[in-house]
Design brief:
The chain is an alpha/beta fold. The chain folds into two domains: 176 residues, Rossmann fold, CATH 3.40.50.1100; 105 residues, Rossmann fold (3-Layer(aba) Sandwich). 40% of the residues lie in helices and 18% in strands. The protein has a six-stranded mixed β-sheet, sandwiched between helices. Helix 3 packs parallel to helix 4 and helix 7 crosses helix 8.
Length: 304
């Protein structure tokens, strides 16, 4: 574990953002931990890397798309940990690698591109068995770090510095970060998860990884849908306007895939009186800013 990472985990930066409708909003700046291993990615990878080291494995194999924060983070963390990394990537290899993939390659990650139909098999036992034959000394991590080790690592997102907040909110992709936060939260806290895609079976996915999660922890959280802006990595002008407004007012950069959607949802919920007046809410900045450059180039936009 990089010592800087460890320090920023134990002594997180928490900034006051604004007061809205009687609710004080703070931001846990996990995006500042590292440019590439930012936010929740570090926490989800921490226990996975430790496991690989403990088992004397020399390689990490994982999955992602062309702009994947997880791919960028795994390549960097693997390199810092003297582990080989292999990224299994969805779709055909582009003629020119984008900034995310260039960074991963520069960090020593072997990039393997497979068809979208084959990629859908990434969790199937037969496909995993084939990977284990090809990489017998590897630890295979699901897309987004969505395994029990990822959940256990995400518990560390909350610590003594976050205990005073009644509400803690986060974007939900695979649900791994959310599940870890729920398990790491105090009894007096409520974890608010805002899915950034249309997938409506996140609890099933979490329960498949962490048995009986919902049955044990159901009173400690709310999952609030409706802020996906059309689906994963989809966006609408209202979202871009919001991201630019937040940056203009507070100097806080959000990404259009995860944190922009989640904080938009939080502001809307506050306006609808979802939260008690005079309560304190902590928004977890889960990073993801490394993907902004690719987003801007793809859509011809400038966010900041």
């Amino acid at each position: 574990m990089n010592q800087l990472f460890q320090t920023l985990i134990e002594e997180p930066r928490i900034d006051f953002l604004t007061e809205r409708n009687g609710v004080e909003i703070y931001v846990k700046r996990d995006d500042l931990i590292d440019e590439k291993v930012s936010g929740n990615k570090l926490f989800k990878l921490k226990q996975n890397v430790a496991f690989a080291k403990k088992e004397h494995l020399d390689t990490i194999v994982t999955f992602g798309g062309a702009f994947s924060n997880h791919i960028a983070a795994t390549a960097t963390y693997g390199n810092l940990s003297s582990l080989k990394t292999v990224g299994i990537l969805r779709g055909e290899r582009p003629e020119t690698l984008n900034s995310t993939l260039l960074h991963a390659s520069d960090q020593g990650m072997d990039l393997e591109f497979i068809s979208r139909s084959d990629y859908r098999l990434k969790s199937e036992p037969d496909y995993i068995a084939q990977l284990k034959k090809r990489f017998p000394n590897a630890h295979i991590i699901p897309e987004g770090g969505a395994n029990l080790l990822g959940i256990e690592g995400a518990k560390e997102i909350l610590n003594k510095a976050t205990d005073k907040f009644k509400y803690v909110a986060t974007a939900m992709g695979t649900g791994t970060t959310f599940a870890g936060m729920v398990k790491g939260s105090e009894k007096s806290q409520k974890i608010i998860g805002l899915p950034i895609h249309k997938h409506d079976k996140l609890l099933d996915d979490i329960n498949a990884i962490d048995l009986n999660f919902d049955e044990i922890h159901s009173s400690k959280y709310d999952i609030i849908n409706g802020y996906h802006f059309g689906g994963y990595a989809k966006w609408k002008p209202d979202l871009i306007d919001f991201i630019q407004e937040i940056y203009g007012q507070f100097g806080l950069k959000l990404d259009p895939v995860y944190t922009g959607k989640a904080l938009f949802g939080i502001f809307d919920l506050i306006d609808k009186n979802y939260f008690e007046a005079e309560s304190k809410l902590l928004f977890i900045h889960t990073g993801g800013l490394q993907g902004v450059e690719g987003f801007e180039k793809r859509f011809g936009l400038k966010l900041f």
